[in-house]
Amino acid sequence: MLVTSPAFKDNAARALESPGLQKALDRAKGGFLSKRGAAVAGLPEFERLRDIGRDIKNHTLQHLDFYLEEYEAKVQGAGGHVHWCHTADDARRAVLEICRRAGARTVTKGKSMISEELGINDHLEAHGIQPVETDLGEYILQLRNEPPSHIIGPAFHLNREDWEESFRASHTDLPKDRVFHERRDILTEARSRLRDKFLVADVGITGANFLVAETGSSVIVTNEGNGDLTQTLPRVHIVLASIEKVVPTLEDCTSLLRLLARSATGQDFSVYTTFSTGVRREGDLDGPEEYHVILVDAGRSNMVGTDFQDMLRCIRCSACMNHCPVYGVVGGHAYGWVYPGPMGSVLTPTLVGVDKAGHLPNASTFCGRCESVCPVKIPLPKLMRHWREREFERHLTPSAIRANLGLWAWFAMRPSLYRMATRAATGVLGLLGRGKGSFRTLPLAGGWTAGRDLPVPQGGTFMAQYKRRQRGARP
Amino acid sequence: MSRDAILGTIRRGLKRGPLPEDQKAMLRARMAAHPRHLIPARSRLDRAGQVALFIRNVEKEFGTVERVPDLAAVPAAVSDYLAAHNLPPRFAMAPHPELQGIDWSDRPLLEFEARKGAASDQASLQHGFAAVAETGTLMLPVAGERPTTLNLLPDTAMVFLRASRIVGAYEEAWDLLRAERVDPLTGGFMPRNVMLVTGPSRSADIEQTLELGAHGPRRLHVILLDDDPAALPEAVAAAPDLRPEPARHPIAEPGEPASPGD
Ligand code: SF4
């Protein structure tokens, strides 16, 4: 996915002026918080489980090479293939090759952040293969050619009118004057559309919340059931998973699952938690005949042994962004890449380069709420502070210019992202600049916007708008 | 090669080479022993308490449960349930010997086929392998006699379950699978697919508002066979609800605000 993090400030300013986004953010305010709060209150052992979750992940990371090799052997034993991919390019190539060998024309997809990170959809489309997102939120974003704004609620920023408008514009074979009386009607239309896609797809691509070394299983967690249809109906199942998803045993995985849904949606457990292990067995009536795991590094192995190793514990629950006051006013697009909020502020500079996203860690009030809710106790404020120190020491040397060229090339390879970037910019910078010892200027952003044609934000500076809103929000 | 590059970078970061054999053996022993971590107290109950907890949690997640005293009562339960929801008396059934062994003849109007699920199915009857009281979760490992598509394609999913197969915590369900299943391909116990199902399918992607029946079933109905003498209906009904107050309610009712999520 395109990185627009350097334009965080402009993005954030625009976000504050977007009535649709602000309506969506207002609607969500409090929802995530009270739901997680109730789920935690419903499980007295939750705090102890957080320590356990942290320890399981730390143990795994200390032996990551070992567990990955064990996992690989188990997948192979179950008739599956593991494709080790050091770079994003390697991963895109591997996916395309499998799809081509399968003679795929349509590929259904469950929601996967790593797929967004790799830009799988653009890559497949560029090579004549039609990817179909099946998570409802991802589906509408694909229709609208927009990036997700939240890691578990990708269409978080859209309102009902947006859904209706997009469905009318895209499902042109249906009567133009049909009425969507209620949200259920929108859901029903999407369901029947996607049913057909599921049935004709040649390949299904899912992400993975966990990989289990003991059994060679990949685990997905969903509420809709789309991920299960995606990995059950087509002949070929591809799993996209980054290396830090591995855990040793089913028991380790189970303890982390007790934390995941509660931290994410406030559910005790998601509706579907599914463990996939290899290919369809003899005698099975359904399930795929081929099973491929794309094991993606794309910058993560570099984090092992550094200050940022703690970040590899992340189980992508989204609690940190749901509880973040900055995310709460600017939304997810402002952060300019796949991962928004506090976890994105730490991860994005690590994975795409401090040159492009080094200022994101300033998008924090350092209130510490993110760390206090993180189910695996990642010290997010401390990690953001590390980045700020590094950014300070770096002084943006000529390497920044090289990085910018690299970014340009990266961009140019992804035309839809390029178009998207000019619409949905990202940025949280302004908030960061407030604290002592932090940066106010973003030398790179100037170069970026000069070459990039980003619209000039209207309506005063980010800070002015932010303050105005904060005043308005006060009772 | 990517594999060497990734493993090499990880090892450099950890400031060591590949693990020595004795350490690998230790870690393999841990995997083989798969030690449990904390098991929440909420499911540490007697049998009647566990069955009651399972039923309450299924209902909390918008599923329904009907108890039947014996296998002979299953056809009437299925037929009445379909009729009550204005559904035709037709369903796809898991080709499981236990379900196929039922005498369906006293409900001659009921039509069923033992097969996997199809997109046109309105209703299905699945065979439950086990269930977890902790969160009202069904464990459905795939097999020829338990096709995964029956869990997903019909709008109304019914699941037959023996009360004796309800355990407290997920870990206990994993142990049942470990003890009872031998995989023909791996020699291990995991089949291609194990679904843990908690309530009917749902989405809150449209304006963070909960709606049931996204891609999967809109209804989930458990037909629970009371085969556990320690958890007969009277004892289950008498079991106190020990869940903390916030754990007794769903995050939202359909049509109410909820966090979107996958
Ligand atoms: S950093 Fe922690 S709170 Fe944020 S998404 Fe990751 S696991 Fe969840």
Automatic annotation (TrEMBL), chain A:
Stored Pfam families: Fer4_8, LUD_dom, LutB_C
Q: Which domain of life is it from?
A: Bacteria
Extent of the signal sequence: none
Matching InterPro entries: 4Fe4S_Fe-S-bd (IPR017896), 4Fe4S_Fe_S_CS (IPR017900), FTHF_cligase-like_sf (IPR024185), Helical_ferredxn (IPR009051), LUD_dom (IPR003741), LutB/LldF (IPR004452), LutB_C (IPR024569), NagB/RpiA_transferase-like (IPR037171)
Give all residue intervals belonging to the 4Fe-4S ferredoxin-type domain: 305-335
Q: Which PANTHER family match?
A: LACTATE UTILIZATION PROTEIN B (PTHR47153:SF2)
Q: What is this protein called?
A: LutB/LldF family L-lactate oxidation iron-sulfur protein
UniProtKB/TrEMBL annotation, chain B:
Location of the region described as Disordered in the Swiss-Prot/TrEMBL record: 239-262
Comp. bias (Basic and acidic residues): 242-251
Xref: Pfam families: LUD_dom
Q: Which SUPFAM superfamilies match?
A: NagB/RpiA/CoA transferase-like
Q: Which organism is it from?
A: Sabulicella glaciei
Query: What residue stretches are annotated with the LUD domain?
Result: 96-225
Write the protein's name. Lactate utilization protein
